[in-house]
Amino acid sequence: MKFFVDTADTDEIKSLAEAGLIDGVTTNPSLIAKSGRNMSDVIAEICDLTTGHVSAEVVATDFDTMVSEGRKLQKIASNVAVKLPLTMDGLKACRTLSDAGTAVNVTLCFSANQALLAAKAGAAYISPFIGRLDDMNIDGMEVIEEIRIIYDNYGFETEILAASIRNANHVKLSALAGADVATVPPNVLRGLASHPLTDKGLAAFLADAEKAGIKI
Ligand code: G3P
């Protein structure tokens, strides 16, 4: 499974990229707004920090403007993936941009039927939002599982990009469900490495090594 980091914080991205932990980045208008920076500038900087796809989302809602914004975003860097919302205009723009060779990440997906349409529209990625479904007491992971079955039934190459991930359990369950990518907030990504028994065991090893005077 590929790990993307879900942030526009370039310091976080740089640190995680240097650790070899990320295969790409996803942003959205809220994350760009949180950065307080010009969108083109921050996307260009992020694209230099990873060789993987960097999702940059349009802010238009009509087909024509979505396509023109998508073309502008694509010009920023070759590894930009244009993010389009899962609406009829977004699906139409997905078809147009993907036919022109642009990688499209169709976002704000909350059902298997929506994901089926995105695959038919040529999306490179589909982003089902697990956490926001869970927030409504709907099993977000069930949508991932359903999409996996449907995509495999028909050989769709669209990659399932598990999004709106809130915790380590979402990551594990996404991997078990066969998601191709998980886009993970920086703190959750770092937290995947943590376990109290690892800390306890390492402390014991180091104490014994010091007691025995082990030098390497
Ligand atoms: O960026 C896409 C998605 O991961 C955002 O989800 O629920 O954390 O805003 P959320």
Automatic annotation (TrEMBL):
PROSITE patterns: TRANSALDOLASE_1 (PS01054), TRANSALDOLASE_2 (PS00958). NCBIfam families: fsa_talC_mipB. Pathway: Carbohydrate degradation; pentose phosphate pathway; D-glyceraldehyde 3-phosphate and beta-D-fructose 6-phosphate from D-ribose 5-phosphate and D-xylulose 5-phosphate (non-oxidative stage): step 2/3. It is found in: Cytoplasm. InterPro entries: Aldolase_TIM, TAL/FSA, Transaldolase_3B, Transaldolase_3B/F6P_aldolase, Transaldolase_AS, TSA/FSA_arc/bac. It is an enzyme of class 2 (transferase). The gene is fsa. Pfam families: TAL_FSA. One of its GO terms (molecular function) is transaldolase activity. This is Probable transaldolase. The keyword Transferase applies. SUPFAM superfamilies: Aldolase. Transaldolase is important for the balance of metabolites in the pentose-phosphate pathway. GO terms for cellular component: cytoplasm.
